[in-house]
Amino acid sequence: MGDTGDVPSSAAQSAQSDQTMTSPGLLTRLRSAFRPPDEPLVHDDAPDPTIKPAGSVLGMLNLRRMRVEDVSVPKPDIVAVPVTITKDELVEVFRDSGLTRLPVYDGTLDTPIGIANLKDFALRHGFNGKSPSMDLRAMVRPLIYVPPSMPLGVLLQKMQAERIHMALVIDEYGGTDGLVTIEDVIEQVVGEIEDEHDIEEAKSWVMEKPGCYLAQARTDLHDFEAEIGMTLTDPKEVDEEEIDTLGGLVTMLAGHLPVRGELIVHPDGPEFEVVDADPRRVKRLRVRLAAARNG
């Protein structure tokens, strides 16, 4: 779903060979992030008040300095379902996405009504097709609505207090701008939390053969430039300040939203073939570098 800081363990580095240091738990460290700077730091699980917390100070500071907009999933990438969806269709969305919570909307995503939870659905209806017809509106759980400027620490406290682990980001006009989960917030403290579904998503590109890549349109432009060993933002047609992804680069070069099958040629040689797209965005690209290398 998103911008994480590395959170290396400093306990192993700071511990002396003849001394054992007690490492505070995650909740203790989260609480310490909101403690006033001039207040003495005392750990509930540390008998010695002189022991300082082990863990990344940088990661804890992310709760104060980062905002919801820094980690939220953008609106086009949100997997959500209409309240009118059938039971079989909902099963397919859960299966295909690998998600356990899905926003539910009435009409459009700008009119959300709650969350569909996989556990609620499975306990009530199962997956054998023998249960009665589904009323999704009666099954949804409440959502949290937050502005993009809210600090992550405030959102974490709100999620804990209301026991709701998903929030929709609402823009100034009341429309949906993005989505953030409690996992997105915790990852800013402890680093990436990957499960079996994240493994494939983490692969932004694959090399099909030398000089040819299949890449996600959301691939970070600078990361891909480092992979191929060339800069793609030098031509005057490209405004480096306006784009961050391969999809953004291709759209800027084309001058319009490319469609599936369209071929866009970079001024320096690389060719971008749109492999997958919908009316709103480009999804996947095939990048051929042979033209640039032979030129």
TrEMBL record:
GO terms for molecular function: flavin adenine dinucleotide binding. The keyword Repeat applies. It comes from the Bacteria. Residues 9-19 have a biased composition (Low complexity). GO terms for cellular component: plasma membrane. The keyword Isomerase does not apply. Residues 74-133, 139-196 form the CBS domain. Belongs to the UPF0053 family. Hemolysin C subfamily. This is Magnesium and cobalt transporter.
